[in-house]
Amino acid sequence: MAHRYPEKLADSSFDNTGLLLEAPYRPHLNNSVLLTVDLTKAVADEAIARKDSIIIAYHPIIFRPLKSFTLANTQQNSLLRLAQEGISVYSPHTAVDAAVGGLNDWLADIVTCKDYENPSEGQEPQTTRSVITPVKDPLQGFEQAGYGRIVKYQTPVELGTIVQRIMRGLKIQDGMSVATPQAVPAGQKSQIKISSIGICAGSGGSLLNGLDVDLLFTGELSHHEALAAIEQGKCVVTVFHSNSERGFLNQRMAVDLMIAINHSQSDGEFADIPKNWSQTGGIAVSQADRDPYSVFSKTVLDGGQW
Fold this sequence. Notes:
The protein is α/β, with parallel strands linked by helices. Helices cover 28% and strands 21% of the residues. The protein folds into 2 domains: 18-91 and 245-285, NIF3 (NGG1p interacting factor 3)-like (Udp-n-acetylmuramoylalanyl-d-glutamate--2,6- Diaminopimelate Ligase, Chain: A, domain 1); 100-241, NIF3 (NGG1p interacting factor 3)-like (Udp-n-acetylmuramoylalanyl-d-glutamate--2,6- Diaminopimelate Ligase, Chain: A, domain 1, 3-Layer(aba) Sandwich), CATH 3.40.1390. The chain has helices at 41-50, 74-85, 94-98, 103-111, 159-169, 205-208, 223-231, 246-266, 298-303, and strands at 18-21, 33-36, 54-57, 88-91, 127-134, 146-158, 177-179, 193-203, 215-220, 235-238, 283-285. The strands form 2 sheets. The chain has a 6-stranded mixed sheet with strand order 5-6-8-9-10-7, with helices on both faces. It has a 5-stranded mixed sheet with strand order 1-4-3-2-11, with helices on both faces. The longest helix has 21 residues, at 246-266. GO terms for molecular function: metal ion binding. Belongs to the GTP cyclohydrolase I type 2/NIF3 family.
């Protein structure tokens, strides 16, 4: 993780990244990794059943100083169980957001048609991309890292086209939230021309508010932040906080880590990991991890099967 998403890229003003739980060695465990956005009880159960040796949780489960560890607290309960089993926990969080080729670049690739499986549209190379807030004092080789992205189209693209790209790229089945200026008549919203997009995974308000772009694309904005944006003539697309992040684990992070470990093995590092490790499920993405919210339609509610 340190080679691909160095901790120094993380926003230390609020974030808590790195090795959050260093568990004692247990010989019964596999040399395997479980990737997840959130470390919930269900994910902890999954890792214990799989006998993983480490969980890489994008969101840090320990976010503020703790005065005690008790079984009554559900998150602390999971950490205590994982420690007992010998399963460590690492969180990269905003280091992944800031890295070139990281989470925000993945979202930028989606709105520029560069991250589809069998895309129906060709690549759209006539765009520029920049960082909203550069990392201060970046490490050598990470000079272009930073938080958030701005994508600018040379030729404006209709809002409806961008929404379709996001739904396909994030594999959204249940819908998403779109806000547009109230002066735009019904039936014409999808035709709004977009020349620039501000992008931030997760909760983007603090980074995107006041940005001079046509569209804000993030996981979530508050009610008042969205109102302020459309009053300024902007559009907003939100897809739920962790839904803006989860697909990255499968499509990018698992692959990046596999390549990094295989490369390191060839250089003599990780000598204790079997050579066929990558073919034997060395890195897996959690099946239990999911956004806490579901979108319910009237059809679902009337059916009563939920």
